[in-house]
Amino acid sequence: MSVVAAENIVAALGVLGAGAMGWRMMASRRAAAMSVAGGDSVHAAPPSADALSRMIETLDLVPAAVLVLDAGGRILHAGPGAWELFGDSLGAIMRHPAPLSAVLGLRDGDRAEVDMMLDVPIRRAVRGQFRRISIGPGQSVVLATLQDGSERDALERMRTDFVAYASHELRTPLAALTGFIETLRGPAADDPSAQQRFLEVMAGQAGRMQRLLDRLLMLSRVQMIEHRKPRGMVSPAAIVSRVRDEAMPLLEGGPASLTVDLPAGLPDFAGDADQVVQVLLNLIENAIKYGSDERDRAVTIGLRVRQTVPAALMGVVGAGKIHGPGMEGGVRQGIAFTVTDNGPGIEARHLPRLTERFYRVEGSSARRTGTGLGLAIVKHIIDRHDGRLTVESRVGKGTAFTVWFPFGEVVSLKRHETVIDTSCPQPADPG
To answer: Which positions ≥6 away from 95 have C-beta within 8 Å?
Structure first.
C-alpha cells in the first residue's frame, strides 16, 4: 500500500465515521472545543459509548488495519483488519514510544506518520498513520491505520544475510576444491589412485556446499513468513507418522534407531504441519550427528509426545532453557514433542548459543558435516507458532530437546470489549 493511499484511507475514515453518525459542523464548534480542556489536551473528554459504537460499525467495513484511539493513545477499538494482520501485537505496537509520542502530540485535524520496529516476540516492521478528529464539543478520537512492512524488511535482511553467510561459509569448501583441482592438473595428473581419492573428497566438499545453500534458502523462507501466524490445525498422530516416514533415509544403514511414545487421543493444535515436521526432522538429524562418534556406537533416539503446559517443561529442564517468548505462567495447554538421544551430551556453556546461526559445539562429530543452521531454523519456526524450545543435556548421558506448540491463537487483548487495556504488563519473574 502506498503512502498516498494510506493517507487517503485515514482521511476517508473520518468522513465515513462522521457520515454514519450524522454529525454536523456547527459555527460554534471551534469555540466549544477550545472551552473544554483547551480543545487539544490528551485529557479531553472521551467519546460517548453511543457515538463510539456507531463509528465502529462504519469503520469495521473498511478493509484495512484500523484502530480507534483516545487522545492519550489508548486503544478504544481494533477493527477486523487490524486483528487479522497484527493480532496479539496490537498492544505492543501502541506501547511503542514512536506512535505513542506521535499521538500525544496531535491536535484536532493533525496527522502523523511513524515507522517502528518490534523485536519481541518476533521482528516486525510497522508503519502507522494517525489523524485526530473532533467528534463533538470536547470529544476527540485518533483514527489510525497500520501497515505491515515485515516481509519487505525480511527480504532486505535475507539478501544481506545470504551474501554474508554464503561468502563466509563457502570459502573453506571452495578453497579445498581449488586446491584439489590444481593438484589434479599437476602432480596427480598421471596418478589414477590419487585422482580417485581427490575426486571423492571434492564430491564431499561439493555436497557440503549444496547442503549449506539448501539450509540458507530454507532459513530465508522461514524468516519471510515468521510474522504470519499459522492457520491450519495439526494432528499429533499425523505429524508422527510423517516424521517416521521421512526419517527413514536418515536411519537406514546407520547405527541409529527411533522409538516413539505417542498416547492415543491427543487433540489437534494450531500450526503449519510442514514446519512442525521440519522441526522434528532437524532435531532427529542432530541427534544422529551428535549422538554418534568415531566408534559408531548405537544411537537410540526417542520421540515422546504429550499434552502439557509450559510451566511443566520448565520443571523438567530447569537451567537448560535456551529459548521461548513469555507465556502467562503456564496456563496455556499445548502439545510437546521431545526428542532424546543417548549421545555424549552437550556442556552447559554451549546451551544458550545453540540456536545461533553457524554455532557448532566444539569437538563434536557434527562439526565436520553440519551447517550450523538447523537449530536456527527450528527457533524461527517455533517463534512463528508462539511456542517454546527447551533443552536438557548431561555430559556422557545424552540430550533431550523439547518443542512445545500451544493450542489455538495467542490472544491477550480483549476482542469482545469496546475498550482495550494496553497498559504495560508486569515484568516476568526472572527466576
So the answer is: 422, 424
CATH number of the structural domain 50-149: 3.30.450.20
Q: Say whether 339 sits in a helix, a strand or coil.
A: strand
Count Cβ atoms below 10 Å from residue 46 Cβ, excluding itself: 18
The CATH architecture one would assign to domain 230-314+330-362+371-412 is 2-Layer Sandwich (3.30)
Q: Which three cell numbers stand for residue 412?
A: 491477550
329-365 pLDDT per residue, tens: 446 789 999 999 988 888 888 888 888 777 777 655 5
For residue range 7-53, list pLDDT tens digits in order.
Answer: 444 444 444 444 333 333 333 333 333 333 334 444 455 566 666 77
CATH 3.30.565.10 domain span(s) along the chain: 230-314+330-362+371-412
Contact 351, 375 (CB under 8 A): no
Amino acid 41 reads S
Q: b vs e for 367-402, b when ≥16 Cβ sit within 10 Å of the residue's Cβ?
A: eeebbbbbbbbbbbbbbbbbbbbbbbbeeeebbbbb
- Residue ranges, CATH 3.30.450.20, the chain: 50-149
**Cis-peptide into 121, omega within 30 deg:** yes
The three three-digit cell numbers of residue 300, written as one number = 537410540
Phi, psi of 46 (to 5 degrees): -70, 155
Q: Which helix (H) or strand (E) is 139 found in, with range?
A: strand 139-148
259: left (phi over 0), alpha (psi -120 to 50) or beta: beta
Residues 385 and 332: their CA atoms lie apart, in Å, by 13
C-alpha cell at 127: 508503519
The whole-model pTM stands at: 0.57
